[in-house]
Amino acid sequence: MEAGLMASRQQGFWRRRVVNPLLELLRQGITPEKIALSIALGITLGITPVIGSTSILCLLAAILLRLNIPAIQLVNYLAYPLQIAMLVPFLRMGQWIFSAPPAAISVAEIFHLIRADVWGAIATLWTATLHALVAWLALAALAAPVLYLLLLPTLRRLGRSLQAEAR
Description:
The chain is elongated. It has 7 helices and no strands. The protein has about 170 residues and is mostly helical.
Protein backbone atom coordinates (compact mmCIF):
# COMPACT_ATOMS: atom_id res chain seq x y z
CA MET A 1 0.00 0.00 0.00
CA GLU A 2 2.81 2.44 0.88
CA ALA A 3 4.59 1.78 -2.43
CA GLY A 4 1.41 2.67 -4.32
CA LEU A 5 1.01 5.90 -2.37
CA MET A 6 4.66 6.83 -2.97
CA ALA A 7 4.33 6.13 -6.72
CA SER A 8 1.16 8.23 -6.82
CA ARG A 9 2.92 11.15 -5.10
CA GLN A 10 5.88 10.92 -7.47
CA GLN A 11 3.55 10.85 -10.43
CA GLY A 12 1.75 13.89 -9.00
CA PHE A 13 5.07 15.69 -8.56
CA TRP A 14 6.09 15.12 -12.20
CA ARG A 15 2.67 16.11 -13.47
CA ARG A 16 2.57 19.28 -11.34
CA ARG A 17 6.20 20.35 -11.74
CA VAL A 18 7.06 19.20 -15.26
CA VAL A 19 4.14 18.15 -17.46
CA ASN A 20 1.68 20.90 -16.52
CA PRO A 21 4.22 23.75 -16.94
CA LEU A 22 5.20 22.36 -20.37
CA LEU A 23 1.56 22.14 -21.41
CA GLU A 24 1.05 25.71 -20.25
CA LEU A 25 4.01 26.90 -22.33
CA LEU A 26 2.51 25.23 -25.40
CA ARG A 27 -0.88 26.82 -24.65
CA GLN A 28 0.84 30.23 -24.43
CA GLY A 29 2.15 29.79 -27.95
CA ILE A 30 5.75 28.89 -27.26
CA THR A 31 6.81 26.60 -30.07
CA PRO A 32 7.63 22.93 -29.57
CA GLU A 33 11.06 23.72 -31.07
CA LYS A 34 11.82 26.33 -28.38
CA ILE A 35 10.59 24.02 -25.61
CA ALA A 36 12.62 21.08 -26.93
CA LEU A 37 15.69 23.32 -27.12
CA SER A 38 15.06 24.61 -23.58
CA ILE A 39 14.85 21.05 -22.25
CA ALA A 40 17.87 19.79 -24.19
CA LEU A 41 20.04 22.73 -23.13
CA GLY A 42 18.66 22.75 -19.58
CA ILE A 43 19.80 19.15 -19.17
CA THR A 44 23.16 19.45 -20.92
CA LEU A 45 24.09 22.75 -19.29
CA GLY A 46 22.60 21.51 -16.02
CA ILE A 47 25.16 18.72 -15.76
CA THR A 48 28.18 20.96 -16.29
CA PRO A 49 30.88 19.71 -13.92
CA VAL A 50 31.29 23.10 -12.26
CA ILE A 51 29.07 23.35 -9.19
CA GLY A 52 27.27 26.68 -9.06
CA SER A 53 27.65 27.57 -12.73
CA THR A 54 24.57 26.02 -14.28
CA SER A 55 22.00 28.71 -13.49
CA ILE A 56 24.15 31.39 -15.10
CA LEU A 57 24.87 29.20 -18.13
CA CYS A 58 21.17 28.45 -18.60
CA LEU A 59 20.26 32.13 -18.19
CA LEU A 60 22.82 33.13 -20.83
CA ALA A 61 21.63 30.42 -23.22
CA ALA A 62 18.02 31.50 -22.72
CA ILE A 63 18.84 35.14 -23.40
CA LEU A 64 21.04 34.43 -26.43
CA LEU A 65 18.61 31.95 -28.00
CA ARG A 66 15.44 33.72 -26.87
CA LEU A 67 14.25 30.74 -24.86
CA ASN A 68 11.83 30.74 -21.97
CA ILE A 69 13.96 31.45 -18.88
CA PRO A 70 11.68 29.74 -16.32
CA ALA A 71 11.47 26.63 -18.54
CA ILE A 72 15.22 26.20 -18.96
CA GLN A 73 15.81 26.95 -15.27
CA LEU A 74 13.18 24.37 -14.26
CA VAL A 75 14.96 21.73 -16.32
CA ASN A 76 18.31 22.89 -14.91
CA TYR A 77 16.91 22.50 -11.39
CA LEU A 78 15.58 19.02 -12.14
CA ALA A 79 18.96 18.03 -13.63
CA TYR A 80 20.85 18.86 -10.42
CA PRO A 81 20.92 15.26 -9.10
CA LEU A 82 22.29 14.18 -12.48
CA GLN A 83 24.98 16.88 -12.24
CA ILE A 84 26.11 15.45 -8.90
CA ALA A 85 25.97 11.88 -10.23
CA MET A 86 28.04 12.83 -13.30
CA LEU A 87 30.69 14.86 -11.46
CA VAL A 88 33.11 12.02 -10.78
CA PRO A 89 32.55 10.33 -14.17
CA PHE A 90 33.40 13.65 -15.89
CA LEU A 91 36.50 13.99 -13.73
CA ARG A 92 37.56 10.42 -14.63
CA MET A 93 36.79 10.95 -18.31
CA GLY A 94 38.84 14.17 -18.29
CA GLN A 95 41.74 12.34 -16.66
CA TRP A 96 41.51 9.68 -19.35
CA ILE A 97 41.38 12.24 -22.21
CA PHE A 98 44.45 14.08 -20.90
CA SER A 99 46.27 11.01 -19.53
CA ALA A 100 46.37 12.81 -16.19
CA PRO A 101 47.14 10.97 -12.97
CA PRO A 102 43.95 9.88 -11.21
CA ALA A 103 42.77 12.18 -8.45
CA ALA A 104 41.35 10.08 -5.64
CA ILE A 105 38.45 12.32 -4.70
CA SER A 106 34.77 11.68 -4.07
CA VAL A 107 31.77 13.97 -4.48
CA ALA A 108 31.56 14.27 -0.68
CA GLU A 109 35.21 15.37 -0.52
CA ILE A 110 34.62 17.92 -3.31
CA PHE A 111 31.70 19.42 -1.39
CA HIS A 112 33.73 19.40 1.82
CA LEU A 113 36.53 21.31 0.05
CA ILE A 114 34.03 23.83 -1.33
CA ARG A 115 32.36 24.36 2.05
CA ALA A 116 35.68 24.73 3.85
CA ASP A 117 37.33 27.12 1.39
CA VAL A 118 35.81 27.94 -2.00
CA TRP A 119 38.94 29.59 -3.39
CA GLY A 120 41.13 26.82 -2.05
CA ALA A 121 38.84 24.24 -3.65
CA ILE A 122 39.04 26.08 -6.97
CA ALA A 123 42.84 26.16 -6.77
CA THR A 124 43.04 22.51 -5.76
CA LEU A 125 40.61 21.25 -8.40
CA TRP A 126 41.46 23.70 -11.21
CA THR A 127 43.21 21.30 -13.59
CA ALA A 128 40.85 18.40 -12.86
CA THR A 129 37.87 20.71 -13.44
CA LEU A 130 39.23 21.92 -16.77
CA HIS A 131 39.75 18.31 -17.84
CA ALA A 132 36.20 17.46 -16.71
CA LEU A 133 34.86 20.44 -18.68
CA VAL A 134 36.48 19.13 -21.86
CA ALA A 135 34.88 15.73 -21.23
CA TRP A 136 31.51 17.39 -20.58
CA LEU A 137 31.84 19.51 -23.72
CA ALA A 138 32.47 16.42 -25.83
CA LEU A 139 29.40 14.72 -24.36
CA ALA A 140 27.22 17.84 -24.47
CA ALA A 141 28.02 18.43 -28.14
CA LEU A 142 26.44 15.05 -28.85
CA ALA A 143 23.78 14.93 -26.15
CA ALA A 144 22.08 18.29 -26.77
CA PRO A 145 21.21 17.64 -30.44
CA VAL A 146 20.16 14.06 -29.69
CA LEU A 147 17.90 15.16 -26.83
CA TYR A 148 16.43 17.91 -29.00
CA LEU A 149 15.68 15.51 -31.85
CA LEU A 150 14.16 12.95 -29.47
CA LEU A 151 11.92 15.49 -27.73
CA LEU A 152 10.76 17.41 -30.78
CA PRO A 153 8.30 14.87 -32.29
CA THR A 154 6.55 14.35 -28.95
CA LEU A 155 6.27 18.08 -28.28
CA ARG A 156 4.98 18.73 -31.80
CA ARG A 157 2.33 16.03 -31.37
CA LEU A 158 1.37 17.49 -28.02
CA GLY A 159 1.19 20.99 -29.51
CA ARG A 160 -1.07 19.79 -32.33
CA SER A 161 -3.38 17.99 -29.92
CA LEU A 162 -3.64 21.13 -27.75
CA GLN A 163 -4.47 23.20 -30.85
CA ALA A 164 -7.14 20.71 -31.88
CA GLU A 165 -8.54 20.74 -28.32
CA ALA A 166 -8.77 24.54 -28.38
CA ARG A 167 -10.87 24.58 -31.55
